[in-house]
Design a protein that fits this description.
Length: 113
């Protein structure tokens, strides 16, 4: 479960990097075409800012999920239980996508047992 959540969180990270690239491309096209629109610039700025926030939080979720995966591979149950958190599963659900969040929620229940 944790490995699949990690894979999908990394895919979400790649998607967020693509969005940032597209925002930069759109800004470059607007500037090249001479489009001066405060509304469009503000919209691109907000999308870029939110993408950076999602990217940072997704990196933190991936880091924590990697630590959980390493604990599973090493058989370190104490570390795995200390890293197991319902709050982080919900953060993953919001910022990394539905699949990593749901899988971490399922893993949370199994780890508690």
């Amino acid at each position: 479960m944790v490995l699949v959540a990690l894979i999908f969180a990394i895919l979400a990270l790649i998607g967020e990097i693509v969005v940032l690239g597209l925002v930069g491309f759109a800004g470059a096209v607007m500037s090249e075409q001479g489009i001066v629109s405060p509304a469009a610039s503000a919209e691109l700025g907000v999308i870029g800012f939110l993408s950076v926030i999602f990217l940072i939080i997704d990196v933190v979720v991936i880091s924590r999920t990697w630590k959980m995966y390493s604990a599973v591979n090493n058989g370190d149950i104490a570390t795995l239980k200390s890293l197991n958190s319902l709050g982080w599963a919900i953060v993953a659900l919001i910022f990394s996508g539905v699949i990593p969040g749901v899988l971490l929620l399922i893993a949370h229940g199994r780890i508690e047992d």
